[in-house]
Amino acid sequence: MKQDEDIPPEEHEKWNLDREREADALEDYKKVERVIGMREDDEGDVEYLVKCMVFIAESLPLADVL
Fold first, then answer.
1. Residue 49's beta-bridge partner residues?
2. Which residue has the higher pLDDT, 26 or 3?
3. Which is more confidently placed, 13 or 52?
4. What are phi and psi of 33, to 5 degrees?
5. pLDDT tens track for 33-51
6. What is the DSSP string of the chain?
7. Where are the domains of the chain?
8. Fewer CB atoms near the end CB (10 Å): N or C, the chain?
9. Four-point Cα dihedral 38, 47, 24, 64, nearest 10
10. What value does the mean pLDDT of the chain take?
11. Phi then psi dihedrals of residue 41, to 5 deg
């Protein structure tokens, strides 16, 4: 949302707060709660199975979550 004279400052601030909340939710989703398991792949690299923090994606499109 660009700064538009037709948009009240309150709406612009609400939009900014919503975007910030969504960005924070995505960052929380990237945090690992615990490591459940690990294994070595065929090339010798270690792969981890992790449990991520839970968050509610009420308004996030699926593409943003993945």
1. 37
2. 26
3. 13
4. -80, -45
5. 899 999 999 999 999 998 8
6. ----TTS-HHHHHHHHHHHHHHHHHHHHHTSEEEEEEEEE-TTS-EEEEEEEPP---SS--HHHH-
7. 9-57
8. C
9. -130
10. 79
11. -85, -175
pTM, two decimal places:
0.43
Distance CA 48, CA 38 (A): 4
- Most confident option among 2-11, 14-23, 27-36: 14-23
Task: Show the tokens assigned to 19.
Answer: 């975007």
**Which residue shows structure tokens 């065929």?**
42
- Phi (first) and psi of residue 30, to 5 degrees: -80, -10
CA distance 61 to 66: 9
